[in-house]
Specification:
The protein is an all-alpha fold and 300 residues long. It folds into 2 domains: 1-30, no CATH class; 31-295, no CATH class. The protein has helices at residues 7-16, 33-42, 44-56, 68-87, 98-118, 122-125, 127-132, 139-165, 179-203, 207-221, 228-232, 238-246, 248-260, 268-291. α5 (98-118) runs antiparallel to α13 (248-260).
């Protein structure tokens, strides 16, 4: 059997020796895309249960347990507002309701930042499961993305509550309903990023270190905690303007802030840019991840 180098060769060798090969299926190979998607659909219940279980047990070792799912985003938003809204008051950039600006920016950006910083380690983190069971490996980043979406069940209400109680109070309006499609586009974007990062992180382990820096760069360059267009506009360089407008995170936060703070609909091109990025990076990320399916069980 040592001369066999592929699943087909293994089957041929077994048949040549008189063994029955019916019911055998190769492990650690990349199935056709259609079969891959069907196998992924068959594991949908496992993916859902795994996502919920990991979220429920995320803070089980802490005394406050699941309270941290609410307390942590509140503390993060309070910290950034204190630093950039109070200590560095010049960072306001003429924003009238800077507290709401920071709260929406910080809390809505967190899950996208985690897709960049945690995505590279997803396959290595699931190596024990990969070696033990046969399943489409894309289930791992997909379960992670669902877990992040479930965590937003706590973050999003905290965001709405904070901008309502912190002066000048923002009250609910019809545009708040737009949070639903914006959130859906953000989750597609996060999943696409996680798929790409999972493959890159498996091939190049140093990606985890690099993406931590990239995530922080995007935080300061996407208008998360201060109006980046206000400061880059001073350079009067059209390339800076184009880079800002093409940034999906900047457009995502623009959509959130227009709906929640201005109670208005953001310009159509903001929706178009975010939708194009979300769908495009999801398709590319899935294809790139699927291409590496046969390699994820290899030890590094």
């Amino acid at each position: 059997m040592a001369e066999a180098r592929s699943a087909a060769q293994v089957v041929q060798n077994l048949e040549a020796r008189g063994f029955a090969t019916e019911g055998l299926s190769p492990v650690g190979v990349r199935p056709p895309l259609g079969q891959y998607l069907r196998e992924l659909w068959d594991r949908r219940h496992f993916i859902w249960v795994d996502s919920r279980h990991r979220l429920d047990t995320k803070n089980s070792r802490n005394r406050l347990g699941r309270i941290w799912l609410i307390l942590r985003p509140m503390l993060d938003a309070a910290l950034y507002f204190f630093v950039f809204g109070v200590l560095i008051s010049g960072a306001r950039g003429g924003i009238e309701n800077f507290a709401a600006y920071v709260v929406v920016g910080v809390l809505m950006f967190q899950s996208t930042m985690r897709s960049l910083s945690q995505g590279p380690g997803l396959i290595r983190g699931g190596s024990a499961m990969i070696r033990a069971f046969s399943f489409p490996r894309v289930a791992i980043p997909l379960a992670w993305a669902i877990r992040e979406a479930l965590q937003m069940r706590y973050t999003l209400p905290v965001t709405l509550l904070m901008i309502m109680v912190i002066p000048p109070n923002e009250m609910p309006g019809p545009a708040w309903l737009l949070v639903v499609p914006i959130f859906a586009l953000q989750m597609l974007l996060n999943l696409g990023i996680a798929l790409l990062m999972a493959r890159l992180g498996f091939v190049f382990p140093d990606t985890s270190q690099l993406m931590g820096v990239v995530a922080r760069f995007l935080m300061y360059g996407s208008g998360v905690i201060f109006p980046v267009e206000h400061y880059l506009g001073r350079f009067d360089n059209p390339w800076f303007d184009a880079a800002i407008e093409a940034n999906p995170i900047y457009q995502m936060l623009r959509l959130y802030r227009s709906a929640l703070i201005d109670n208005a609909v953001a310009p159509f091109h903001s929706w178009l840019i975010l939708a194009a990025w979300s769908v495009g990076i999801l398709v590319i990320g899935f294809f790139v991840f699927w291409r590496g399916e046969a390699s994820y069980g290899d030890a590094h």
